[in-house]
## 1
Amino acid sequence: MKKILVTGGLGFIGSHTVVELQNEGYEVVIIDNLSNTTISVLDSIVSITGITPTFANIDLRNQKAVGDFFDNHTIDGVIHFAAFKAVGESVGSPLSYYQNNLNTLIYLLQELTVRKIDNFIFSSSCTVYGQADSLPITEKEPVKPAESPYGYSKQAGEIILRDSCKASELNAISLRYFNPIGAHPSIKIGELPLGVPQNLIPYITQTAAGLRGELSVFGDDYPTKDGTAVRDYIHVVDLAKAHISALARLMHKENKSNYEFFNVGSGTGSSVLEVIKAFEKASGKPLRYKIVGRREGDVTAAYADTTLANKELKWKTTLSLDDALASAWKWQLAQEK
Ligand code: UD1
C-alpha cells in the first residue's frame, strides 16, 4: 500500500482529497496544524470511509518538526495543501503569508530531495494568470503580475518547485485550481469559513440561511454577458479526484517532464448573477442581493481550458454547477443543526 502525506489534510480541499485517496486504496498520513479547521473533520473523514488516517498536528514552519516527521514515516508521495489562502489578509500580512506558504514548501522539498521521495503535488491557483489575454485559459497563457502577496506566494511556489525539479530527481505537478465549491455528497465534510466569508458561495449560503442580511454583488459593469464577473466553479469532489489522477501519473512515471502544471476547472464560465439564479433553483430559496462597486483586485473573467488535464491526467469533471450548489446548500443547513 502506498503511503501518501497530505499536508492541510483537514482543510476544505485536503479533506475531500483524503477521502478519495482512501477510496483508491492509498494509506494516508495527514499533517495539519488546525489553524483554519477543526479536529472534528478527522472523525468526519473516518465516518465516510471507515478508515482512520494517521494524523500529526505539526506546524510545517517548524523545520525540525518536519525533519522528525520524515524520520518516523516512510512516505511515497506528498500532496501539499497546507497554506494561508485569504487574498485580502495577505495584503496586510505579507511576511506571514510568505513565511507560511514558502518556508513550509521549502522545508518539505528539502526533506524530499534528501530522502529521495520524488512524487509531489502542489496546490496552485488560476490567480497566477491574472486577467488572461485569451479565454478559456490554457496552460500556455503567461503568468501575470499578482494582485496580492497570496498570489505571489503561489507564483513563487511554482518557481521553487520547477527549479527544485531541475536540480534533483524530484517529480512534481502543480494543479492550478479555478474556484472550488460544494461539499461531499455525504454532507459530512465541506467548507468551514471562519468569520465573514470572503468567497462567493459561502456568502450566498450564509445569506440564504439568514446569517447575513444580503449578498453584495461586486460590480455589474464588467464587459461580460450580464455585466457581472465570470469565474469557473468546480465541484470540490471533482477537484479532489484530479489529485488522484495526478498522483497516479507520477506513481506510474507517465509524466512527460519532471515538472508539469495543469489547469483544474470545469471549463465553464459562470457570471455572479448566473450563480445566484442557479443557487435559487438548487435551494428553492430566493436570495437577497444588491449590486455594489467592483472589488479591488478582481479580474473580469477567468475560466479554464481543461484539454490538457483531460488528456494527460485522464481526468474530467462529472459534477455540475447545480450539483455543487445543491451540496453547498445542504452543507450549510447541516451546519445549523
Ligand atoms: C479568490 C481569490 C483567488 C483565490 C480564491 C481562493 C481574489 C481576487 N481572488 O477567487 O486568488 O485563489 O479566491 O478561493 O480574491 N463576489 C461577489 N460578492 C461576494 C463575494 C464574491 O460578488 O460577496 C464575486 C467576486 O467579485 C467574483 C466571484 O464572486 O467575481 C467569485 O469570488 P470569490 O469566491 O471570492 O473567488 P475569486 O475572487 O474568483
## 2
Amino acid sequence: MSNRFNRRRFLQTTAAAGLTAAAAPAIPRTPRRPVVIASANGLTSTNAEGVSCIEAAFVKITEGADVLDALIAGVNIVELDPNDASVGYGGLPDADGVVTLDSCCMHGPKRRAGGVACLKGVRTPSLVAQAVADITDHHLLVDEGAQRFARNMGFEIEDDLNTDRSRALWLEWKRRTDPEHFPDPESRAEAGYRVGLQMVAEGKIDPEHYYGTINCSGVNASGDVCGVTTTSGLAWKIPGRVGDSPILGAGLYVDNDVGAAGSTGRGEANLYSLASFLTVENLRQGMHPKDAGMAALQRIRSYTVDARLLNEAGEPAFNVNFYVLAKDGAHAGVAFYGGEGRNYAVCDNNGPRHEPIEGLLGND
Ligand code: ASP
C-alpha cells in the first residue's frame, strides 16, 4: 500500500519536474560476442609469460569469470609491469619523487563502483578500488585513508613504488627544473611542463607515458559490461594532484544498459566535462561508439578556451583519448589527434590486436 502510494507520488513529482519526459530511453542492445578493449598498453605490456591485459581478461571472460574480476586481473599485469611507466609499480612519480596512484572501477550489472586516489605504496590500486566497491558503502577513498583501508584489507604497503628507471627520470627532471631557485608557483609549473615535453621530444619518455594510464572495458556474451581505469597520473605532478582516472564519469563510466567509456590523456580537460559519462549518454541516444566519443571530444574542444592550452591553429594543444564499448560489442578509440602509433587494444574471437585511434582533428 505504502509502496504504491510512494510510487504514485514519485511519478507525480518527476512528471511535474519534467523529468520523465526528459529521460532518454535506454536503447536495448543485443550482445553479439565477448569483447575487451583497452588503451594500447593493454596489449603492449605483458607479464613474464608474455600474456597481455586484454588477452588475460578475454580468456577469463570466455571461461565464465565475472567481467570486472577478469578486467582487473588484466590491468594487474600492467600495474605490475616495471616497464610501463604510466601505471602502478614504476609509474612516473610526482614532483617530490613519490609514486601516487589513482584508479576506479565500475560493475555494470551490480551497479557498484569504487575508487582510490593519491594512493601510495600499493602496486595494484585497481584491486583496492574494487575492495572499496565491494566492502564499503563509499565510492572514493584518498591518500592516507585509502592506504589505511588497503592495509586493513591485507594489501602489502611498500615504502616506495619507484623503479630505478622511474627514479632516474625523476632525478633528471628535478635537475633540469632547477628547484633551488624556486620561482613563483605558476612559472615553476610551466617550467616543469616545458621540460617534461622536452624529455618526451628527446625520446627519454614515451609520449604515451607522460600522460599515461590503462583503461580497460569488457562485455561478456550475456551483455554484462564492466570497466576499470588505473594510472600513476601525470608525471611530476604537484603532490596531491588527482586526475580524471579515479573519478566516476571522467576517467570511466559504465552503464550496463548501454556500454562503457574510459579515458586517457589530459585529465584536467576531461574532468571539466565528465566526458566518459557524456559518451555513455551519447551511446544511450543510439550513437555508434565512434560518434559518441567524437561528440564528447567536441564538448571538450568547445570548453578549451585558455590560450595556454591552444596551438597555433587555435585547437587543443594536448590529447585526450576515449575507448568506447557498446553493450552489443561495437567499439571505437577516438582522440583529438590520431595518426602513426596511436592505437587502442582489442581482443575478441578474432584474437588480440591494435586498431587505429581516429582523430577528431586529424593526425599529429
Ligand atoms: N588521465 C590521466 C591523468 O590525467 C593521465 C593519463 O591518462 O595519461 O591523470
